[in-house]
Amino acid sequence: MQRFSSSSPGFVWGVVMIGVMAISIGSILVRLALKSADQSGIGFSLVMAAIRLTGASLIVLPTALKIKWRSLSSQALIYAIAAGGCLAFHFATWITSLSYTSIAASTTLVTTSPIWVAILSKFWLNEKLSPGKMIGIAVAFLGGIMIGLSETQTGSFYSNPLLGDSLALIGAWAVSFYIMFGREAQQRGFSIGGYVMVAYTVAALILLPLPLVFGVGYTNYPTSVYFYLLLMAIIPQLIGHTSFNWAINKISPTLVTLAILFEPIGASFLGYLFFNEVPPLSVLIGGIIILSGVAIAVINSELKSG
């Protein structure tokens, strides 16, 4: 219990709440950049993902000077590089999803990563799926089916909701592998700072040339676009993710995971304020069912480990 004495619970939870607000802003910044650039689709989405990760990696790059590279195992580096590849794929798919589906559906589906981590752990770490976890997974799947069946609306940002939902779900799968690879990298000697530096840098290097493949460049956009992209790197990426990485060492990781489930709620509320976006009732109900299923699985995991 001594690890809790360095910071008061109120301060730790304050940091967690700041993290939740920071990641909730991420989808709003994506939409604002899309609107300012008058763009949509995969090409410009890759531009946003690349600039977000490049900005974040440049900020944490000085961490490389503190890494004892010679003492690191080759396996630790391989896992960190693999995590970076998964992170690149996560942002490429999730950011693109926001061109096609609602903020509520996208953020809810991408937040299902604890479910996929639980399934991966069964095969990766030979962990058993308890009845409680299986119930949570089944409930989450039910919510996902409801969202998928209800996504028939059209509009400027709802041109292909089923495609957007699928991309968000793929983004959840990618970040689940990112979590698993990151766990392995840190268990083999990487500090959190060194691991994040390598993962962010690898993700940025993978993403940077991809927009050019789709015939989209990095220049000739309004100044506001670059401002929103800079905010993406600072607010949701550095402030949001760093807050959670720090808090996990202060309070139960399960509590942090449950707090992250508030992201779709915050993002949906901001989507209404900024864009007057109100998803269909069936999407909202499906989202609540999904988050309930994830919460059941996460809480059951904590009870089992306790």
What is the percent of helical residues? over 70%
Evaluate the radius of gyration: 19 Å
| SS summary, helix count | 13
Mean pLDDT: 83
Give the SSE string. HHHHHHHHHHHHH
User: What's the total count of β strands?
Assistant: 0
**Separation, N- and C-terminal Cα atoms:** 14 Å
Count of all domains: 1
Structure explained in plain terms:
By secondary structure, the protein is mostly helical. The chain has one domain. Helices cover 75% and strands 0% of the residues. The protein has 13 helices and no strands. It has helices at 9-37, 42-60, 74-97, 103-110, 113-124, 131-150, 161-187, 192-207, 210-213, 223-247, 253-260, 263-275, 281-305. Helix 1 (9-37) packs across helix 12 (263-275).
SSE arrangement:
Blueprint (H helix, E strand, L loop, with lengths): L8 H29 L4 H19 L13 H24 L5 H8 L2 H12 L6 H20 L10 H27 L4 H16 L2 H4 L9 H25 L5 H8 L2 H13 L5 H25 L1
Helix pairs in contact: 1-10, 1-12, 2-3, 2-8, 2-10, 3-7, 3-8, 4-7, 4-12, 4-13, 5-7, 6-13
Structure, briefly:
The protein has about 300 residues and is an all-alpha fold.
